[in-house]
Amino acid sequence: MLTDTSVLIKEVTQNEISDVLSIAKATWEPTYREILSKAQIDYMYEEIYTATAVEKQIRDQGHTFLILYVADAAVGYASYSLREDKERVYKVHKLHIHPDFQGQKYGRTLVGHLEKEVKNRGARMLEMNVNRYNPAVRFYERCGYQQAREENTPIGDFWMNDFVMYKELY
Length: 170
Prior knowledge:
alpha+beta; Aminopeptidase; eight-stranded mixed β-sheet; 5 helices; 8 strands; 34% helix; Acyl_CoA_acyltransferase; acyltransferase; transferase; GNAT_dom
């Protein structure tokens, strides 16, 4: 748990899932409307961001969700898990900051906290998939992430066209 006078980052429990979903609702469509079709946005949102889906990600897929609060307002969240196919490599599955709080260093705060948390768990590398057309690619590059490769992954009738990005954790 990270705290200062107004910032708190904690692991999500059942009590905070509604806060995660509230931030997701505010960020999902604005983030992807210039990148993906409306049909793909709606499909992916319904697959990933229901209370049941988030609970399943935590319970069955081993995802750890973090939530960032500023002065008791839910501002951002991230999720990660250990990659079972790669030793000491963790994967970021999600990281979103509410649009009203973007550009105020909260994304960098959340990324930094997430990196420390997985490093404390023994990680040597953190990786993530980022849509190739998402402006957040530049944010992650500024945070020290590099592009490893391109990856096209089917989801339903759609494709996710991503960069796989990574950062060595020393």
